């Protein structure tokens, strides 16, 4: 499964970030996390956070797809008409 996560407004030059991203591109999550912790490049701490976010996004997307297929509700989402927050009107 492929997931996507972005980090905005990070104060690291794109060239430095690209060096770290190229090390983990195409690897499995555990292997990528291991590479990031063992190499001592500046953006690695930020990339670990983005990697964890991408994993969480993939898990959430998988849960939504599974619930939609089974006809159940997605945990953490309220039932109701589109656009309603489920709370009292103000």
Kindly describe this structure.
This protein is mainly α. The protein has a domain at 14-70. 53% of the residues lie in helices and 0% in strands. It contains three helices and no strands. It has helices at residues 14-24, 29-38, 44-70. α2 runs antiparallel to α3 (44-70). The radius of gyration is 18 Å and the shape is elongated. The N and C termini lie far apart (42 Å). The mean pLDDT is 83.
DSSP helical segment count: 3
Compute the number of strand runs.
Answer: 0
Oligomer designation: single chain
Q: Order of SSEs, N→C? A: HHH
Helix content: 40-55%
Q: Let me know the largest β-sheet.
A: none
Amount of beta strand: under 5%
Shape: elongated
Structural class: mainly alpha
Query: Gyration radius, to the nearest Å?
Result: 18 Å
- Residue-averaged pLDDT: 83
Intertermini distance: 42 Å
Query: Which stretches are poorly predicted, pLDDT < 50 over at least 5 residues?
Result: none
Quick structural gist:
With 90 residues, the protein is mainly α.
SSE layout and pairings?
Elements: H1 14-24, H2 29-38, H3 44-70
Helix pairs in contact: 2-3
Q: Main traits of this protein?
A:
single chain, about 90 residues, mainly alpha, elongated
């Amino acid at each position: 499964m492929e997931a996507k996560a972005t980090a905005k407004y990070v104060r690291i030059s794109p060239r430095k970030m690209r060096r770290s991203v190229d090390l983990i591109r195409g690897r499995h999550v555990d292997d990528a996390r291991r590479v990031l912790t063992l190499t001592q490049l500046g953006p690695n701490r930020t990339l670990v956070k983005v990697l964890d976010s991408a994993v969480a996004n993939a898990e959430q997307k998988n849960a939504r797809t599974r619930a939609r297929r089974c006809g159940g509700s997605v945990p953490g989402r309220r039932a109701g008409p589109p656009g309603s927050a489920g709370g009292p009107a103000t």
